[in-house]
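Cross-posting from the modeling subforum.

Setting up a comparison between two proteins and wanted a second pair of eyes on the formatting. Protein 1 (sequence, then structure tokens):
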Amino acid sequence: MEANLMNLLQGSLSEGMIEQLSQQIGGANKESTAAAASGIVNTLMGALAKNAESTEGAQALNNALERDHDGSILNDVVGMLSGQQAQSQDTRMLNGSGILNHVLGNKQGGAVEMISKLSGLDSDKTGSLMTMLAPVVMGALGKTKKEQGLDIAGIASLLSGTVSAERANSDNPAIDMAMKFLDSDGDGSVVDDVASIGMKMLGGLFGRK
């Protein structure tokens, strides 16, 4: 069950999608965009898992999924990125900034800085990319919840299992870094460790067969 969530995101963020994302944030380098996208997905997944560790956090997440994120956004990610979906979809589904405020809170700035250093993508573009990808991550979680009939405990278990599986995957060094950052007090010290990981994460989420 755990692997399905990352597989679903990987399928939604194909090479063609990375190209689209690169264009949307102003013609960024495709490899840097892929590395940043991988870092963002890992960080958001880790943050969601941490939020769901408390009963209150899991309940709030479950409510948000039931209300706004049924997974339909994954049917047309390109449309969402280009703004063509905005007229027909619930605006809360597409509100990346609102999602990030709930999921990352005051760690958002530090997360952008960390992922920017890791990927080589400048922080403005990294922030834009994070705002675009937040609804996609929530959509993948909502789709999995719907298909597997998950309750609040099931959502928490899915997220913790996904993070554990990714941490055991040596092809994904970004998840450990993301979790260290999320566990820190937000002073940014983890950001200094980023150089040691560098672009290793390019082969992570989007390099899987």
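Protein 2 (same layout):
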Amino acid sequence: MRTCRASAAGKLTVVLATIVALAGCGGGPSSRAWAASVCGALTPWRSEISKLTSSTDEQMTAQTTPAQAKENLVRLFDGAEQASEAARRKVEKAGIPEADNGETISAGFRSSLGKMRDAYGRARDTIDGLGTGEPTAFYDGVRAAVETLNKEYDASALDTSKLNSEELKQAFDEVPECR
């Protein structure tokens, strides 16, 4: 009985080693497929962020009460946070590209989107916490929140010129989803 267990354990070890070895031998998407997936995730996100940014600008100049502006801005920043998280999840779902530095590059995209998501969430929470009784103080608080958001957003941007993979650079230049 003891030899059966030892034999079974040995076979299990071989099977697990084979699975690990095969998992390490690729299985990720090609550079072109990954770039297409990432651009497919980022295109609607950019469109949504652009729309939300325009709406935010309108809210800053609209003749509304502070309470109305607060409600609208909280909703807008919540939408931007959700859009950023949706894009981050899609990039995560795209997997790790089979390319030089694929893991690092994929992680960079996910991290950047996560930081943008968090910046929008902090802006939303800041504005949500502002009192609306004194309009000047409210709008000063909104301006400060938007300035902080812009700084955090700029700091979280991924510098795609530092992609250390020629095949991914080429894929981003060539796939239709990225044009």
